[in-house]
């Protein structure tokens, strides 16, 4: 790689590292794993940096590398996982509702397959269009839509299962929700 290309890559990483780390954090729940994911993706991208003709597409390229890397890790770890009947309780250190809701959502996202998780992250957190998501993941728009639909349904189902009778919606007790539904009808 030419000296100018190395400097270009270093400048790119310096200016985009925070946004890329946020993307990695959304793909894997553990902050240390997210840093490892980003570093691995950057190392893999560094060797191909001069092959990216349009550097405006570098974010999309790097996100794709992160998704592929995360999928590789998931597949390798999947063989070591042992299914259990009960999931461990989610612990939330922060007392604010927003942080608690985010932690619950991140925990619930673990139930999704890597493909579904990637579609949800790109569409809802990265706010990419259906077409942009399809291009980033190498699938058709229809596949993105159906995968997103199934993933959101699975997330709703898991949220209802975890919150049960105690909390039907994030932070809303079941009697309060029933009262609100009666008033709305």
Any overview of this molecule?
With 185 residues, the protein is an all-alpha fold. Helix content is 69%, strand content 3%. A two-stranded antiparallel sheet has the order 1-2. Helix 6 (130-137) crosses helix 7. The termini are far apart. 19% of the residues are buried. Mean pLDDT is 79; it is low at 165-177.
- Count of beta strands: 2
Q: What is the helix tally?
A: 8
Radius of gyration: 19 Å
Secondary-structure element string: HHHHHHHEEH
Low-confidence stretches: 165-177
Taking the alpha carbons of the first and last residues, their distance comes to 66 Å
Outline the fold blueprint.
Layout: H1 3-27, H2 31-46, H3 58-78, H4 97-108, H5 114-125, H6 130-137, H7 141-163, E1 167-169, E2 172-173, H8 174-184
Antiparallel strand pairs: 1-2
Helix pairs in contact: 1-2, 1-3, 2-3, 5-7, 6-7
């Amino acid at each position: 790689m030419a000296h100018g290309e190395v400097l270009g890559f270093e400048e790119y990483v310096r200016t985009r590292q925070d946004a890329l780390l946020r993307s990695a954090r959304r793909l894997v729940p553990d902050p240390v794993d997210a840093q490892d994911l980003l570093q691995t993706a950057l190392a893999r991208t560094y060797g191909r940096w001069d092959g990216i003709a349009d550097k405006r597409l570098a974010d999309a390229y790097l996100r794709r590398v992160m998704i592929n890397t995360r999928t590789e890790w998931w597949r390798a770890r999947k063989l070591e996982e042992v299914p259990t009947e009960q999931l461990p309780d989610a612990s939330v250190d922060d007392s604010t509702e927003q942080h608690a809701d985010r932690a619950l959502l991140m925990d619930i996202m673990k139930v999704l397959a890597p493909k579904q998780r990637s579609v949800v992250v790109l569409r809802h957190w990265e706010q990419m269009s259906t077409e942009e998501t399809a291009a980033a993941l190498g699938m058709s728009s229809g596949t993105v839509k159906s995968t997103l639909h199934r993933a959101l349904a699975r997330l709703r189902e898991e949220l209802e299962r975890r919150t049960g009778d105690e909390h039907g919606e994030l932070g809303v007790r079941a009697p309060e929700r029933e009262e609100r539904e009666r008033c709305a009808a």
